[in-house]
Amino acid sequence: MLTVTFIRHGESEDNLKDIWAGWKDAPLSPLGVKQAEAIGHYFANTNTHFDIIYTSPSARAHSTALAVQQAQVPIHINSHINTTPPPVIPNLNLREQHFGIAEGQPWVLKHPDLVGPNGKALSDKELDVALASLFVRGVFPVVPRPKDKFPGGESLEDLARRAEVAVRECVLPHLRFLKEEGQDYHVAIASHGLCISEIVAALVRLDSEFHPKGEEVGAGVDPGKRFRGLLNTAWARVELNISRTGTDGPIDVADPSINLPRLQVKVTHFNCVEHLAHLVRPISLSIYLIFCDYFSLTNLQQDKEQTEEPKATSSAARKFFSGGGVEASDEKVNLRLQLGLGS
């Protein structure tokens, strides 16, 4: 089995501000340093060994990756102790969505120019004109369409295409251990909220049974929407197995999509943060402790099948952090999680 564990970076100095971050570099905050150390120790204490760690070159992600690497403990392989930590390899395609001229500028939740009279939706042409006018004035609202971008930046559609390149560079080459040598392999990827959501979605689309219009958890026209809201140093996990070879030749290292076998792709964990229980503020502790259970894709599917309503606290937490309806006063907090603002 090829396992890919995604880790969002620790809290950065920019996470404390209402600004567009993207490629703008910022170091980890003091809390972010502790979060990165906590996730590293968590993996070590749960005997989670990584064979390789890829990271965004942004300081906040790279520092998180190094903390994970430094905590990896020696393991026994064929009666020998391997004391070599996994390599940390920066990859430009693991950077967050690029917000162009908006980076470092305040983000705006809503702007009246993007809504017509009486709340009527604007046409595409009207939206284009309204956005261009706002950008000239130095106003940078949350853009309404996946194709929209700030000048000099990327759209969500651009990010999705880049995520597919990241999959080809950081995930698919390691299928050869599974296909040709029958070995398990574990890849860690330290990156950013939006980028991770699109990479997970790209992996889901590789499943041989994936149907774009399916109703399964993890499927859909835009599966990336289902994998947003990662907290700082929250982790997610995807497992890839070969369902049947389908090809006879070896995987081409230069282009791993050549001779790609039929795959089974399963998202087993999402937004797991139990390692942060001792770091969070008391008011948030109960919410943090339930994340691993209630953002696990397996448990989400079980919720769908159960007739009994979950406990009020759990239901409220899921609603608050998954964008399923929040109070107006919590709207900015929820938006930050869903869109990766300050990511």
UniProtKB/TrEMBL annotation:
Annotated SMART domains: PGAM (SM00855)
Keyword field contains Iron-sulfur: no
Source organism superkingdom: Eukaryota
Gene3D superfamilies: Phosphoglycerate mutase-like (3.40.50.1240)
CDD domains: HP_PGM_like
Any Pfam family the entry gives: His_Phos_1
GO MF annotations, alphabetized: fructose-2,6-bisphosphate 2-phosphatase activity
Residues where substrate binds: R8, H9, G10, E11, S12, E13, D14, N15, R60
An annotated GO BP: negative regulation of glycolytic process
A GO cellular component annotation in the UniProt record: cytosol
Keywords attached to this entry: Hydrolase
PANTHER family: FRUCTOSE-2,6-BISPHOSPHATASE TIGAR
Protein's UniProt name: Phosphoglycerate mutase-like protein
Organism annotation: Amanita thiersii Skay4041
